[in-house]
Amino acid sequence: MPVVQACPVTVTGAIRRVLTRRSRGQKTPYRDKVRAQIVLLAARRWSNTAIAAQVGITVDTVRTWRGRFAEQGLAGLADRARSGRPSRFTPVQVAQVKALACQFPARAGVALSRWSCPELAREVVGQGIAEAMSASTVWRWLAREAIKPWQYRSWLFPRDPDFATKAERVLDLYERRWAGRKLGPREYVISSDEKTSIQARCRCHPALAPGQARMMRVNHEYERGGAVAYLAAYDVARARVFGRCAASTGIVPFMALVEQVMTVEPYASAKRVFWVVDNGSSHRGQAAIDRLAKRFPNAVMVHTPVHPWPAIALGSDPDDFDHDWRPVEHASVELVKAMAASDIGFGARGDEIWNILLSEAQNRDEPSGTSGEQFDALTSAINRPCTKALETVLSFLGHEYRLNGTVMPEALELLSSILQLDGRIGVEHRAILATRIEFLRHIAPAWFEQHHGELFGGDSPSELGQVTVDLAVRWGQVNKWLLDSYPSSVRDAVEHALEHYLVSLRD
Hints:
- The radius of gyration is 37 Å and the shape is elongated.
- The strands form three sheets. Strands 5-4-3-6-7 form a five-stranded mixed β-sheet, sandwiched between helices. A two-stranded antiparallel sheet has the order 1-2. It has a two-stranded antiparallel sheet with strand order 8-9.
- It has helices at about 15-25, 30-45, 50-55, 60-70, 90-100, 115-125, 135-145, 165-175, 250-260, 285-295, 335-340, 350-360, 375-385, 385-405, 410-420, 425-435, 435-445, 445-450, 465-475, 480-485, 485-505, and strands at about 175-180, 180, 185-205, 220-235, 240-245, 270-275, 300-305, 310-315, 330.
- The longest helix is centred in the C-terminal third of the chain and has 20 residues, at about 385-405.
- Helix 1 (about 15-25) crosses helix 2 (about 30-45) and helix 3 (about 50-55) crosses helix 4.
- It is of the alpha/beta class.
C-alpha cells in the first residue's frame, strides 16, 4: 500500500517573517498562532504526526492548514466565508424597521420625542411587522446605515433681515478686518457676553482632603447664597480675558466691565477698540452705541445678528423650578404663550417671568420712524423683541385673569404708556392692542372705556392710525370691534393689503 506524502511547503523570507510574528505575538488570536506554527514546522519538513504532537492538535487539523497554505499561500490561512444560520427576517421587514426609525414617534402614535432601540423593537412587534425582535437586532440593522434616531442636532433659523451683513462684519473682525481692510497694530477686537443666574452655593461642612487609600470627600448638602451674573470680555487676538461678577445684568454692570477694560493699556491709548456684543437689554440698539462712544470715543460697538427672541432663563438646577419646566432651560415666546393658555402654570417662576416680560416690553432702544416713511411694518413688528414681549405680556395677563380674576396694575400702566408712543414703534404696538381689543375690554373694562379712543386718534383716524389699521388687517386678526368702530378704515386697509399683494406678484 503506497504511503501518502504530506504536501511540501516552501516559505520565503518575507512570508517567514510574517508567520514568525504571528507564532510569537502576545496579542495574536490563538487560531492564527496555531496555523502559523503548523506552516513553519511544515517548512522544516516535519511530518504531520510530529507537528500534531508538537502543537497539541489533531493530524487532520495539521493536514487541512498545511494543504491550504500550499495551495493559496497566506490567504489560505484565513477563515473561509460561512453561510451561517438562515436569517429569521426578510429584506422587506428590515426595510420596514429602517423606515420606522426614520419617522417621528408621534406619527406612529407613540408618546416619545425620539426613538430608542428597545422602543423600536417594541413598536415593530406592536405593528405586526415581526412576531418578536430584540433591541440588539434593531441596533445592528440601523448601524449598517448609520441611522441614529436617538440623536438630534438643533438648528436656528436666522430671522434678522440683515443677518448676512451683520454676521459678515463680526466674522471679519475675528479675522482682524474691518470695512475691507486689515486692522492696524493699535486696533483691538473685544468679544463680550454675560452669564446670568449663576448659583452661589456654600457647603454646610468643609471638604476633607484626600489621603492614603481615601479620595477627597465633599459634603453633599449646601446652602444657597443667591444668584450672581458673570460678565466677561475676551480679546480675540491676544486671548486675554477680563471678567467681573455683579448682582444682576444691566447697563450699569456692563459699563463697569467696559470701564475695567478701557482704562488699562493697550486699550486706553488704542486707536480703536471694537466691542462685539449681542442684542441683550444691557447693550441693545443705537442708544447703547451712543452711550459707549460718549464714554470712550475710541470704542466702537458692533452687534451680532438679532437672535430669535427671547431667552427667558429658567435656570439649569432642577431644584430651581417646577417639574413641568424640567425639560427646558430657556422658554421661547411661543412656549410662554402656550403655558399661559394652559392649566400648567408657571409655578414659583411666575413673578420672575413677569418681570422679565415687563422689562423686555419696555425696552424700545430701536430707532423710531415716522408714519410717512416707507417700511415693511409687518416684518419689522414680527422681528422686534419689544413687540414680541408685548404679545406675551397679553397672554400672561389672560393667564392671571383666569386664575385670580384681576389685572396687574403694572400691566395697565404699560398699556397706557404704549398709547403715548409715536412713530414706527407706536404703530406696531397699537396694532397688537387693536387685535386684542375685545380681550382688553373683557378683563379691564374701565381702562378700555378710558383709553380705547387713543388707539387711532378719535372717530376719524389720523394717518398714523390708518397705518395701524393696515397693519392689524395684514396681521390677519380683524375683530368685530374694529369693524364696527372703523368700517371705512378697515375697508381702506383691505384695499391697501390687496394692492400690496398684487404689486408683490408683479414684481
